[in-house]
Amino acid sequence: QVQLQESGPGLVRPSETLSLTCSVSNYSVSSGFYWGWIRQTPGKGLEYIAMIYYGGNTDISPSVKDRVSISVDASKNQFSLTLTSVTAADTAVYYCARARGCSSRSCYWYFWGQGTLVTVSS
Amino acid sequence: DIQMTQSPSTLSASVGDRVTITCRASQSISGWLAWYQQKPGKAPNLLIYDASYLETGVPSRFSGSGSGTDFSLTISSLQPDDFATYYCQHYSSYSPSTFGQGTKVEI
User: Does B28 contact A at CB distance below 8 Å?
Assistant: First the structure.
């Protein structure tokens, strides 16, 4: 069973940079599939952020495109998300996930991490 | 972006009821639609993909239908474990993926 685990700070100050890592077990990130980040807030619900395929293909939601980068580290079997210039609107539970299938542009998600709450506050 | 609108937002039902949740896309997404179930404090769980294909291990009382802009998720006989919030998600080739706002199924 593929397992994913998010890690990162629970509290980030406004205007600073949020960095999250997803550690993957029982499957190699270099073996295929898209790996992604989705967040959830009470107000906006579930929101797709970004995804990456080992080998470099990435997709980032236009809503955060100017602030987000995503990368994969096969040596550590991890992938990461960086979100710059955070505001209170970025407060959310952040999930990492592995895709089950995709269209030519977007994917749906089967394996999920447990989620990590990130609060943006001074 | 394509907007996904679910209805109702909340649904009150009883064990054994047949329940249908609808999801409407603001433009055609062909059959690029998934349904998830989420329980409090847990990640979403994939139920249906490609609008009507049941994910392995999901009980057969769940079914999905639709294409284009109108989709539905049906639970044929509601079980106690089914009280949860359900989300649709499009993954069309033409627009960034978006989720519906959710439908809470409660007693």
Answer: no
Long-range contact pairs involving B65-68 (C-beta distance under 8 Å, separation at least 24): B66/B23, B66/B31, B66/B33, B67/B30, B67/B31, B68/B25, B68/B28, B68/B29, B68/B30
B29 in contact with A, Cβ within 8 Å: no
Q: Per residue in B18-66, pLDDT tens?
A: 999 999 999 999 999 999 999 999 999 999 999 999 999 999 999 999 9
Q: Inter-chain contact B102–A45, Cβ cutoff 8 Å?
A: yes
What confidence tens digit (pLDDT) does each residue in A37-83 have?
999 998 788 999 999 998 778 999 999 999 999 999 999 999 999 99
Shortest Cα–Cα distance, B54 to chain A (Å): 12
